């Protein structure tokens, strides 16, 4: 999975949900949750907006679109 959310750090403030361009994230059970991991562009917006450092994005994850030049 490209996005990891540390449930111990997440306060469910919703900033990551609001900033995500692809609506990948949502709030479930009192914390942010990755609802659509394959839709993540790995842009990092959620990481930068999280004031609590609860989100990390794995840039080497295999579950998102890759562009290849021919």
Write the layout of secondary structure elements.
Layout: E1 3-5, H1 15-19, E2 25-28, E3 31-34, H2 45-49, E4 55-57
Antiparallel strand pairs: 1-4, 2-3
Mean of the pLDDT scores? 86
**CATH uppermost class:** Alpha Beta
- SSE ordering: EHEEHE
| Main beta sheet strand tally, sense and closure | 2 strands, antiparallel
Terminal CA distance: 27 Å
Class of secondary structure makeup: alpha+beta
General form: globular
How many domains is the backbone divided into? 1
- What amount of the residues lies in strands? 15-25%
Count of individual helical segments: 2
Radius of gyration: 12 Å
**At CATH's second level, what is the architecture?**
2-Layer Sandwich
Identify low-pLDDT runs.
Answer: none
Helix content: 10-25%
Biggest β-sheet: strands ordered side by side in the sheet? 1-4
CATH topology: Alpha-Beta Plaits
Tally the beta strands.
Answer: 4
Features:
two-stranded antiparallel ribbon, 70 residues, alpha+beta, 2 helices, two-stranded antiparallel sheet, globular, Alpha-Beta Plaits
Description of the molecule:
The protein is an alpha+beta fold and 70 residues long. It has one domain: Alpha-Beta Plaits (2-Layer Sandwich). It contains two helices and four strands. The chain is globular and about 45 Å long. It starts with a strand and ends in a 13-residue tail after the last strand.
Short description:
The protein is α+β, with helices and mostly antiparallel strands.
């Amino acid at each position: 999975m490209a996005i990891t959310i540390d449930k111990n750090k997440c306060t469910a403030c919703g900033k990551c949900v609001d900033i995500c361009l692809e609506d990948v994230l949502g709030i479930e059970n009192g914390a942010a949750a990755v609802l659509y991991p394959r839709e993540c562009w790995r842009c990092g917006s959620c990481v930068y907006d999280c004031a609590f450092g609860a989100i990390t994005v794995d840039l080497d994850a295999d579950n998102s679109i890759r562009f290849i030049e021919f």
